[in-house]
């Protein structure tokens, strides 16, 4: 099946079953620190309630697997697809995105019952080889929503003047290994980009194709809070010449003077308000801020192609990624983890890209306008979800994800 | 004390204690059909979460009674006044009104604990005669919020596509007694307006003063759904000449074509979606709609003075008012009850009006701009709360309260 | 004819002819300092281009006099009624108010030709007695637009960073006569309000009727720039407790800290930027500002009824009013002139008010919602236009008219 | 000088002088059909008044040539740089873009006098070889504004209900030569992109660099009105699946159902309202519309690199481009002319791109965010202005330029 671009390894279906069950269980554990009310509120149109994430990912399996492929399956509730479809036009009318916070009903318990119902029915499909790609897509989809659930609840809790914590942050200090790595240099030339062969990938990662690169170098680590403080101290947010025109307008209109979640000496984290660690990677910055910082530093953002080529041989499951609940970037010497890394690349289709037929074809292609590509993985990304060819994308002003910055320069 | 304008009858303090306890208990029972999530969401900036109403009314007692008058009282939580102050500038900074729906914490249970704590401490003040007026003000204040809690949760549940019910509606059909009453005629002349003498009243009801009235007549009952259907069928919402200029702009911009909560043949009620009763009073109409209807009917809205004079000898506790939970206008032959009745009077200070000193002086006076007076009481008004001199007020476009219309004409 | 409420004095038609010709000529002279471009631009939706005022007042005569009453009259241009109808719904669709500044065509010269054409045709109607009331209405209408033309062009020129002058200001210093007048005291009681008998009046000034007044006093002169400076120095714009709730929100949202057109030590006038005269009346203030000042001064705004009763025997044509081109408030001991004076009265219909039949019935009645009454006359009011019963009205936030403040207090 | 990337051919300065004089004269002739009022109005924030274009292009020469390089030069008016700086932050504060329509002063005549003054002073610099690149930049800059002047005045005249014409359209029917050309096929491979060597180019066209292309084909001609009618008839504007997500939101919010300037059977042109020619290229479409059409047609938009490579050997001065006043796309067999052609490429910097030092460095680089590249030239482009490496760019929703569409497909 085109969308998922998976290999057909023997024994995959068993592993897929296990992965499905682990995934579904992990999502539920993410809401364990939350009350029904916590899981209901929506703090901005870009964010969704935790409860909605749990239900929407379940709707995905119910719709594209159970409804379409399990004979005799009855919907858990016929009114719910209207509530929990996100943006699939082909699936009909749906509840307005900005009004997801109005759904005090169904309750969190009812949503959990929905999950159990769908999980039970899914057992009948997990072994069907011809559905493996679609199930893998559903898993990858839910992993994405696990990350969104964490960043969305962080935003919601931050808007509460009481500043409640979602959970405990890891207390140990990571070996950041700054000394270990030098600038990552690359001689340029023709490089292969995109996914090919075994393993799952989204449709926006294919077809694999060649690009021409000039010689470049990537910074060995992400820009830190200490460095960002220097940017601020040097008037970075008040110097028009450092900014893209749209970025400067955004700074002026929103009176931006620091990353999101900063206040004097502190930052809001999933563990509540904490003193900022100067050596940790700066996070919650927009593309505009990342670009201005790079200009200030006399460098630039990497392209998505440069980043992908540099990361080809790195372990995508290494670094600071999400294994449990409360997460926070602390820094490491890895290419993956801590923060998604803004590139200067616009999110556009690869040559000969074709969306899949049907509703799942709306997964990626229609968003290829006005957004920027991010590479890597963040502290909130389920470990194992990302890879070198992965293309994350957000609007250039958005910064409630764990976004950060790795510098590049020409050689 | 000026604000409350109460009489000092012997034994009042005991009755005040009983009223306080009954009031506080009634508020809690209003949230019995609601989950923590239901009580947390805010469906528009004009509305507040149910939980917030419970906490804000408690903050009023904690601040103006316990903090100011109970030696050694410690705040339940020092961070909560910031959350639950509504608009008292003299009480300092406060949480933004439009962001009240972000407060998933404190939980409903914590708010109920807050109420119990304050209720306990209040026992030490209930017998103090010099505080009786301030306590009576706190009671009247909480009664207002009981009505708002009902209208706000109605709005929130309506925004849920599942259309959940808050509770059961009364099933019995009321004797509407239409035949009983004819037009209420009045010969005009000098009349006394406003509150004087015994009993509680808000500061906006004084000083009592004289006004000159022309001869007029008031309709014996409220305009009904059946009559409103005729207005619609006659093109009422499409005929510019019937509308105030601001009203016509409001109709155009918001594509208004029916009262709030109407859909084909049905209306949303606290009992969920129900078939509309043609003989019940029309409700959830704006001042603009009421004015346009009156013009269409060849009549006009009454002034607040006409209404008050006509109602002087009516029982303000009669009619369809709130005794329990789910409420709905069904019609009666009374002047009070079913729906608040729009007047053509702007909400302005009475001659020689003076706001009270201190924060409670912000209770009414500062809102005397741009709003319209409503008289009577609605099905959601706690029975006993209103009186002939009562001045309710809302913006002319607002219609999520149980608002209705009684016609007037010149004699 | 009801609308104009005029007397039928012998010889009126001749005088009406003369008044018509003088009026029409005066309007044209108002644009003598303006280029076609000056007369085309629209600086905000509340304001209209000078050219539009010239054409719209002509459209009024063409439509309600020539078209309706002159046999065989042909429209000057059949497409222009669409352009120059202001708000008469009964006259059909019209050009959007906010887009009046798009009309670089027709040119100012073409509009002047339109005026000449209509003036010529009007000669055939000026002697017809049965049209005298309608012609008087057209004259009063155009006088209103003469004032708006001046206040609108002032706003437009102010928005130009070059700060061009419309004309020379009168240089002589007026005898302000402050000493001459004491507080104007009135014992209260029953008073007649509104227009009755001979002379033109708008429909909103009738029917005459009685009101009851409490004893009050009016300040002998308008509040001055010097006094306003003291209000500012005392933190008037930063003290929430002085303001109506809507007013405080307006101050915060718009960062209001001074009257419109003020900058350090200067004010923009029709003569360009000028040093402020501390003894001249403060002008270009909103109702909110006027109300806050009165509260700060320990007084209040008068009601429209108090003002009218106090002014009954004053000469409405005295004081600083408009005789020529450039105008500015300089102060005088008169009740009329310099600035329109905000009252605390909402703009509402008088008892038994009925709009006229047909399109001219839209003149006043439909605006009776959300606005405040102003009394007197300003330096831009054509001398002879106003009278004690005159009811001017604007939104409480508007301040581009020559608006000012006279204090009142209870006796 | 880096910015202009010009060759230093002998005799260039003389030709530059001639080009300068011809350019300056051509700009003035563009306003010959306009009154001062026409040249003053601003119909939307994206557009500027004709007068402003004349003055701003003059300010560019006055600032970067005369002020910086002509000893003893005195500014024509010291207050005007504030008015006529467009977006150069390094040149200080400036008049708000959206308020350019407030400038009834200076008059068109005064602006023409400004032009004459600057032109005279420029004679002293035209022969200086070291300034040739900067002068060439000023010329290219003014050519861009000539095109904007035409598209902006078209928009302004369209907003006038009278629909006035700017001038006569060419009446002759062009030989469109559709039969002449087949699909333009290209085998892909490594191609050089960007400007190198002799001749002027903007800084965004360099450095020249290599890209890898897949085999592709370009349509021989632009999509026509007839074809667009078929798209509409087939429900193109109502079919979500054809649109980018941002595009679909734009269609919904703005109720888009046809290209800009269309009404039943007609289109607004610089010659007023005209019957649409079905064989002429469709124009005034957004990127979103172009992309949706291509999807509907089973094809795609070309990349900017594909277009540039295909056009390398075409004559950039051929086709329907601007030689005189009134212009309109009529169709031809050329790659250049008629309409700017949307590509699927985001407007991003070329590898090793560096903005110039100083204020002129703000010319292009800071706009490299959120915009789309267009290639070719339009009927309003001064003939000789464009070239194969030229990168025009606009926001994907903008469509008041003469924008059109050439299809591409993979081979
Ligand atoms: Fe999803
Ligand atoms: Fe309250
Ligand atoms: Fe008018
Ligand atoms: Fe420019």
TrEMBL record, chains A, B, C, D:
Residues 183-315, 330-409 form the Sulfatase-modifying factor enzyme-like domain. Keywords: Iron, Oxidoreductase. InterPro entries: CTDL_fold, DinB-like, DinB/YfiT-like, EgtB, Sulfatase_Mod_Factor_Kinase, SUMF_dom, SUMF_sf. Pathway: Amino-acid biosynthesis; ergothioneine biosynthesis. Residues 20-140 form the DinB-like domain. One of its GO terms (biological process) is ergothioneine biosynthetic process. Pfam families: DinB_2 (PF12867), FGE-sulfatase (PF03781). Gene3D superfamilies: paralog of FGE (formylglycine-generating enzyme) (3.90.1580.10). PANTHER family: HERCYNINE OXYGENASE (PTHR23150:SF36), SULFATASE MODIFYING FACTOR 1, 2 (PTHR23150). This is Ergothioneine biosynthesis protein EgtB.
